[in-house]
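User: Predict the structure for this protein chain, please.
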Amino acid sequence: MPENISNTPNTSNAPQVTIASGPPLPNRYLVTIWCEDDGVLYEVRKAKRLLPEPMLFFYIELGSEIPSQYTIERDGFIIYGLEDYKTVDYDSTKLVYRVTGFEDGFKYRIKFILYHEFNSRQKLKIRIDNGWTRNVWVNPDELTVVEGIIPEAFIKDGEIVITDEIMQGELAVLSSIVIYQEPKGQSGPQEQEVVNIGNNGEQLAIKPNPMRDNAEIYYQINSPGITNLTLYDITGRKVKSFINGNFEQGCYRLTWDGTDETGRKLSEGVYFIRLDNQTEAFTQKVVILK
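Assistant: Here is the predicted structure, written as structure tokens:
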């Protein structure tokens, strides 16, 4: 259970510098940083405004014995390990998928996760319909991510065809396809929250980080309401939900043993812990070592 360790709100004003920023997970901010002078010392402050956040629309996990319902063409699958990105579809010429269900009034961002353990790197051409194209080199034993915006013209008919074609190497491979949805016309800041920067002023922290066994997760809730604390892997897939409920304003702490939702120890790698409620969101990277 989380432990409430303080209950101190933050307020301030007088912005001087505004910076657009965002972590690897799909949330974005405008961050304003300034100094406040009390006559002797300067106090560094910041205000973070949450921008409209794309929502997960499709997470298509590949590399299973039974082909995905979106699969049009593949030769088979390979399982290199227990991690999700280490299960891949493959084909000697090209992998083909058809994704349907796109809606008017939204824009879509797509992410391709690629991985293999062949002896040499593979050159692949990823294509959406007959227009959007990316050429990418995928090195052995190295997770590769390709991202882009799906052109609006491609989804007018409600579907897209994705092709992953081998250009140089042994096989075309693909681990997963992730698509995010965002309403059109939403740009600029929404709700604002103000936080301190300095000792004990972090909104979300993991100690120790990197971690091997157990870690303490510290998080601050500035606005009471429904709050979620969630763990994601490097592909953006949800791995564990720490909390999901109605919380009061304040600072909290909980202990995490490095396991996923099922209680299984997570493999070594990079993950992201995200704190969010109705008016704020923060993401912190955590590295697990063995």
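The CA atoms of residues 208 and 215 lie 6 Å apart.
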